[in-house]
Amino acid sequence: xxxETVETVIVGGGLSxxxxxxxxxxxxxxxxxxEAREDIGGRIVCPEHRGxxxxxxxxxxxxxTQPTIDGLVREYGLRAYPQFESGRGRFQRSxxxxxxxxxxxxxxxxxxxxxxxRSLVDALAATIAPxxxxxxxPVCRIERQTSGLQVVVGQLEKPPEAIFLADHxxxxxxxxxxxxxxxxxxxxxxxxxxxxxxxxxxxxxxxKFFALYEEPFWRSHGLSGxxxxxxxxxxxxxxxxxxxxxxxxxxxxLGVPAAYRRRHSDLSEALLAQLAxxxxxxxxxxxxxxxxxxxxxxxxxxQYDQPPMLTHPAYGPPDGQTAVWDDTLRFAGTETAERHGxxxxxxxxxxxxxxxxx
Length: 358
Fold this sequence. Notes:
Elements lengths: L1 E10 L3 H12 L4 E4 L13 E2 L2 E2 L13 H9 L4 E3 L5 E5 L5 E5 L8 E3 L4 H8 L7 E2 L4 E6 L4 E5 L8 E10 L3 H7 L1 E3 L4 H9 L8 E7 L3 H4 L2 E7 L4 E6 L8 E7 L3 H6 L4 H12 L8 E6 L29 E2 L4 E3 L12 H13 L2
Parallel strand pairs: 1-2, 1-12, 2-9, 6-15, 10-13, 12-20
Antiparallel strand pairs: 3-4, 5-8, 6-7, 10-11, 11-12, 14-17, 14-18, 15-16, 16-17, 19-20
């Protein structure tokens, strides 16, 4: 078992954690990022096909209203393009009947990154010394001591795999996940723990797919690629194509709950049949098909996240607190953001707050 002393431990290597690390690196501070997964990114997952990176997590940002992420995209020269929305939409009724309807253009305009949202994570990670980012390091206990905090990596019922002694901890894990999987000593106040457990993790109850094709056949029929369905299994579909070249894609979110998805572990055939019913037979034959059920991700979802959220929550610091234990334990992560909670912008805003306090 190894033991290390650092100034700041950042728990979680998603966008919020990596941005907090980036900001501390700019200040030449001493820190380490502990990520439970093998790789960084958190809910940003971008499988590649023919040089195109899909987004099985967050896909969009809004430059007009989200200055932090827009500034980073510009600063690092990332290639961005507007979401394709030209043409008519489709609507599938519960009886299977498909109708052509008006598309609903987003306002303000939503944008995508050509390298997937992973390109933003990679750009920020490139400013951080690789040794400061540790994968396969699930944090199971955070203990307040006379001087500083002790952060334990491993599983509670087993001997520690590593111990870190720090002056500060920036906790970027979703509040509900942290409250469910990390033992805090001494106990956090009951009102705070309850607030953390009530904070739903964005996307945790959802599943998302991505189908890529050689040609955007739906566009030739005057369709935008946007569709909504009462029948399922997909409830919401969008054009997920590369910019001005192939591959071209259809992507969307499943509209059936996690309990149904557990009983039907492979929904790919049903999804492709639904795409064919909505957009035509070519949709049944993609070059590649990607699928991610976030409700099954142990480092994202808990048992309380299985029902998908039907509306966007009003996020913010849990119980109104941005930090506890005399400012040594600080909350970050998109669900704790005062602005744009649940979005990528919120992840950045919360990280900036926590890192600025350091």
